[in-house]
Specification:
Mean pLDDT: 91
Largest sheet: 5 strands, antiparallel
Number of domains: 1
Strand order of the largest sheet: 1-7-6-2-3
Oligomer: single chain
Structural class: mainly beta
Distance between the termini: 17 Å
Helix content: under 10%
Shape: globular
Number of helices: 1
Low-confidence stretches: none
Order of helices and strands: EHEEEEEEEE
């Protein structure tokens, strides 16, 4: 899965077709996962403990490159995103998620997710870090 979560897509549909409003997302919280978080943001595969925490990234043109006009449209990080140093194993990280909250796990807080281009095994003492352009989020057109 790469793209927006079910609840977020519903918000966008309601904004476009029913005059609803889009949320103001001034800060995104990036999560790591040992498997796909799915379309509703399953957090069972998000690390817990051992120094793990989602990373806050301000939504702006400094931290995110402009989305492409392509199929699929792709957007990626313009600056490095670095997580805290692990104090124990976080497992092998295969996906990242995007949330509107640093800790909440409700589907209403899940924005979307995408697989990593290369998985990372995070053990005690490791620091998960993603260089500019390493985290790519996309969605397909019709």
């Amino acid at each position: 899965m790469s793209g927006f979560g079910n609840t977020f897509m519903s918000v966008v549909n309601n904004a476009v077709f029913r005059g609803g409003s889009l949320p103001t997302l001034t800060t995104l919280y990036i999560s790591l996962h040992t498997a796909s978080p799915g379309a509703d943001g399953q957090t069972a595969n998000e690390p817990v403990g051992n120094g793990y925490a989602r990373v806050a990234v301000t939504s702006n043109g400094t931290n995110w490159n402009a989305g492409t006009v392509a199929d699929p449209s792709v957007i990626n990080n313009a600056t490095a995103i670095t997580f805290p140093t692990a104090s124990g194993s976080w497992g092998t990280i295969t996906h990242f998620g995007i949330w509107n909250n640093s800790t909440a796990t409700a589907t209403t807080n899940f924005i979307g997710a995408a697989p990593l281009t290369a998985s990372q095994a995070i053990a005690s003492g490791n620091t998960a870090s993603f260089a500019a352009s390493a985290l790519q989020h996309s969605f397909d057109s019709v």
